[in-house]
Design goal:
Elements lengths: L1 E6 L20 E5 L5 E4 L5 H10 L5 E5 L23 E6 L5 H9 L16 E7 L5 E2 L1 E5 L3 E7 L7 E7 L2 E6 L14 H7 L5 E5 L4 H7 L7 H11 L3 E5 L7 H18 L4 E4 L5 E3 L1
Parallel strand pairs: 3-4, 4-5, 5-6, 11-12, 12-13, 13-14
Antiparallel strand pairs: 1-2, 1-15, 2-3, 7-8, 9-10, 10-11
């Protein structure tokens, strides 16, 4: 199986010369099984390029779109997702174990006047609602299911809530926590031990690492973790690989590289076997 990163920036897209290596598109990640089935997580600005890629192909005409939560940086790419305008496509809108009709309201609200010039009625794809990851993903039609990717959800520790996900696919385990604050308790959030147990022995943990320790003196309670927090969680969970995610929009490529070096030095000091890297736009992680 593989994971493709279409966007890994947090809070707001940040294109420019200083973000060429790790990218400036906001959250969109694709989990792809060896059989070719896939789940797309979040519709940040990175989903635009994914949509363009799907339009060029001929094999895939159904998209399973799974949302972690409804903050703008995870939704704002949806109006630019070209398959949504094509009657040849069907799109399942999925999330955590809550009433899923609200998800459709979230994505459609940003297209209402005066926020966007194109009405959602122009989207001719078939939209399928009512699925969530713990139940099984809708595929092609309401009675169909994705068989090769299983999913479990857990509440994020983040303002306004949301869900992190664990995917079981081709004998591997991937955990995805794009917005999760380890040190500050938000309504509905859980303890570090519960997150570590959820991610136990994961082959890959992708986790929010927006802030440095210095940043966090000013940004505590904003909903995001530090680099050190992400590493400590990965170590406690016994994860094999850690992908640092949700890069701060003001973090340059040089800054991210430096923070990865600091994380690796810390991991070495702890004498644990953990592969730590920063997620980058366009990256394909094979497991």
């Amino acid at each position: 199986m593989k994971v493709k990163i279409w966007g890994c920036r947090g809070s707001i897209p940040s294109p420019g010369r200083e973000t060429l290596i790790f990218g400036g598109e906001s959250t969109c990640v694709e989990v792809i099984s060896d059989s070719g089935e896939s789940v797309v997580i979040d519709a940040g600005s990175g989903i635009r390029k994914l949509g363009n890629s799907l339009m060029k192909g001929k094999d895939i005409r159904h998209v399973t779109l799974l949302f972690t939560h409804a903050h703008w940086d995870h939704l704002l790419g949806f109006p630019f997702f070209r398959p949504a305008y094509s009657p040849e496509f069907s799109i399942s809108i999925c999330g955590g174990p809550i009433p899923q009709e609200t998800l459709m309201k979230y994505v459609s609200h940003q297209m209402e006047p005066p926020y966007f010039p194109v009405d959602m009625s122009e989207m001719k794809a078939e939209f399928i609602t009512g699925c969530h990851c713990d139940q099984g993903f809708c595929n092609h039609n309401p009675g169909g299911r994705i068989e090769s990717i299983k999913c479990h959800s857990i509440a994020l520790n983040h303002p306004n809530g949301g869900y992190g996900f664990k995917f079981l696919c081709d004998g591997k385990v991937i955990c995805f926590f794009p917005d999760n604050e380890i040190r500050h308790k938000h309504k509905g959030g859980l303890t570090v031990k519960k997150y570590a147990a959820f991610c136990k022995n994961a082959d890959l943990l992708i986790h929010d690492a927006q802030y440095t320790e210095d940043d966090y003196t000013r940004t505590k309670s904003w909903g995001h973790s530090t680099f050190r927090d992400a590493v400590d969680l990965a170590i406690e969970a016994g994860a094999k690989r850690l992908g640092l995610f949700h890069h701060d929009p003001d973090r340059s490529d040089y800054d991210i590289k430096r923070q990865v070096d600091i994380c690796r030095e810390y991991i070495s000091e702890q004498k644990v076997n953990l592969d730590c890297f920063a997620c980058a736009e366009g990256m394909v992680i094979k497991l």
